[in-house]
Design a protein that fits this description.
The structure is a single chain. By secondary structure, this protein is mainly α. The chain has two domains: about 80 residues; about 100 residues, no CATH class. The protein is about 70% helix and about 0% strand. The chain is built from eight helices and no strands. It is elongated and about 60 Å long. The two termini are about 35 Å apart.
């Protein structure tokens, strides 16, 4: 009789096969990351089936291809640059960086609304934060999409509508409540992303 761990074992075996061109230590790191993500997801969302979790992770070939590309391998079995079988530097950005870039600039813009340079820099930093989030290896595609929608798109649309309507003067109680609500959304989204990140 098959145990519930069989689909996970089969999935990880498929990733291991597809990523056979990776150096052994990097391949084991990849498998450990995937196994940890599966276990964390099962613990946090017990109602989600194993099949759904594996579907969220994606096709083993895609995961292996991404890992191979990050390690400097053009394709399975291809050596890294210079013919050596040594992975290229991965250039990972710490997962805290995009989260801070999406939240702290909004706080500064909220505290210093009359300084155009702060408003401009806030926008630039938040765009860069969204790009870093989208290109990060620490979250799944669904998590990245949700994070960008909640921490970048929704606040930008809300702020644009607020400015265009000019219904409430800046500094009034409704404006303060709106800003604090938006800040709570950003902090909550960042906290959720931090909690669900992959090692």
């Amino acid at each position: 009789m098959k145990t519930s761990a069989d689909p996970i074992r089969d999935y990880l075996s498929a990733v291991e096969r597809e990523a056979s061109a990776l150096p052994a230590d990097r391949r084991q790191e990849l498998l450990a990351d995937l196994a940890e993500h599966i276990e964390v997801t099962r613990a946090e969302r017990p109602e989600t089936t194993t099949g759904e979790i594996l579907a969220e992770l994606g096709d083993p070939r895609t995961i292996a291809a991404t890992a191979l590309a990050e390690s400097g391998h053009a394709a399975a079995g291809a050596p890294a640059r210079g013919g050596a079988d040594v992975p290229a530097p991965r250039g990972k950005v710490h997962p805290l960086v995009p989260l801070l870039m999406l939240t702290v600039p909004f706080l500064l813009a909220m505290l210093l609304p009359d300084i155009p340079a702060v408003q401009f820099c806030s926008t630039v930093f938040r765009v860069v934060g969204a790009v870093l989030l989208c290109t990060s290896v620490h979250w799944t595609t669904v998590q990245k999409t949700t994070g960008v929608l909640l921490a970048a798109v929704l606040p930008t649309v809300a702020i644009s509508v607020w400015i265009a309507s000019s219904a409430v003067p800046e500094g009034s109680t409704p404006a303060l409540v709106a800003n604090l609500t938006m800040l709570a959304l950003l902090v909550g989204t960042a906290a959720w992303l931090w909690r669900t990140r992959r090692a």
